[in-house]
C-alpha cells in the first residue's frame, strides 16, 4: 500500500487525497490553517462556480498553450461530474456556468470533507510544511520539527492569491528544492490601475461595455460585459479576463492600453443621430447624453477630452460620440495578490506529465492546482483545473 502525503487541503489537495485513498493508498493531508478549503468558501460569491460546460484552450493562460487541454482531455467535464456525483454533489447549469444545486460553497466543502473522513484520510491541521526532501525510500516532509515519511508526495499548496486563505506561495520553494523552474507569479483576475481621470470621475459606475486589450499597440484580446469604475481602477469580469496578459506585459516593461466602447449595442452613426436629436432640443451635450449614459460617465468623458457641453455643433457631438465608442485608457498596474482571484505563472508545466501531473524531474512527486503555471478566466475554469489535476495526480499516486 502506497503512503501518500498531500500538502494543502484546498480543492486540488482534497480531490487528490480522495482519489489516492479510493485507489487504495494510505493518505495523510497536511494543512497549515485551522481548516481546509478556505478559498473554496469564497468562490462564486459563496455560490461556488464549480466548472463550465464549455472548455477550450482560450479559457486558460499558460506558457505552454496546449498543456491545460492535454490535462483536461485526461479528466474532462464528464469525469468531473461523475466525481461530483460520487460524493453526492449535484449540479445545475446557467449559461454554461455550473454550480452546486445548493448554491453554497459550504456544502461542497462539507461533501469533500465527509468523503475524506469516510475513506479514513488523516488530515492534520495547523501543520505548516517547512520543507520536502527526497530520500532513498521516498519523501520526508518536515513540519515544525516533526518529520513525516511517504512513498509519494503531492504538492497542492495553491499559489499566492488571497494569502489569508493559506496560499502564501510556500509551494514554489518546495518545487524549487526539486530543481523545478517557476514562472514569475503575478496577480490575475484582478482590477487594473490606470492613469485616466475618467476612473475617478466615473467611480461607482457600472456599464455594459466592450474592452480591447493592446500590448505595444497590438490588439491581443477583447472582452464584453459589465465594466466597473473605482477610484484609479477599472474592474469587472470583462476586465479580469484581460488582466493576466495585461499584468504580465507590464511586468515585461511593455506598453499596455485598453480601448473601451461604452455603447457596444449602438454604432457611432446611430449614437450621433440620437445625441444630435436630443441636443437640438436641449442645447446642451450633457442633457443630450443623459438618456443613454450615466451622469458621472458623461462628465468623465467631457472632462477627459476637454469637450464643451454648451457646444452642440455637429463636430462636437461627433467627437463625444466617437469617445463613447472608443476611449483609450493606459494601464499602469494592478491591485495586489490580496484581491487577485488567482495567480498567473507558477511551476513550469513542461516539467510535469499531463496525464498524471507527476514531476518529470523527481519520480513520485506531483504538482497540482494553482501552484502550476496555469490560470483560467472567470467561469469555473480554475476549480475545474484544481479538480482535474488533483484527480489525475491522486489516482496515479496510489498506483
Ligand atoms: C474570491 C475568489 C473567488 C473565486 N471564485 C471562483 C469560482 O467561482 N470558480 C472557479 O473556478 N475559481 C474561483 N476562484 C479560484 C479558485 O478558488 C482557485 O483557483 C482554487 O481554489 C485553487 O485551488 P488549489 O487547491 O490549487 O489552492 P488553494 O485553494 O489555495 O489551497 C491550497 C491549500 O494549501 C495550504 N497550504 C499552503 N502552503 C502550505 C504549507 N506550507 N503547509 C501546509 N499547507 C499549506 C493552504 O492553506 C490551502 O488550504 C476564486 C478565487 C477567489 C480568491
Short description:
The protein is of the alpha+beta class.
Word description of this protein:
- The chain is of the alpha+beta class.
- It has two domains: 235 residues, FAD/NAD(P)-binding domain (3-Layer(bba) Sandwich), CATH 3.50.50.60; 145 residues, no CATH class.
- It has twelve helices and 21 strands.
- The protein has a six-stranded antiparallel beta barrel. It has a five-stranded parallel β-sheet with strand order 7-2-1-11-20, with helices on both faces.
- α2 crosses α12 and α8 packs across α11.
- The chain is elongated.
- It starts with a strand and ends with a helix.
- The site of flavin-adenine dinucleotide (FAD) has 42 residues, from α1, α5 and α12.
Indicate how many domains the architecture comprises: 2
The CATH superfamily of the largest domain turns out to be FAD/NAD(P)-binding domain
Query: Percent of residues in helical segments?
Result: 25-40%
Bound molecules: flavin-adenine dinucleotide
**Could you give the order of strands across the largest sheet?**
13-16-15-14-17-18
- Contiguous helical run count: 12
Give the overall shape, derived from the CA principal axes: elongated
CATH topology of the largest domain: FAD/NAD(P)-binding domain
Query: Can you tell me the residue ranges where pLDDT is under 50 for at least 5 consecutive residues?
Result: none
The CATH class label of the largest domain is Alpha Beta
Terminal residue distance: 9 Å
Share of β-strand residues: 25-35%
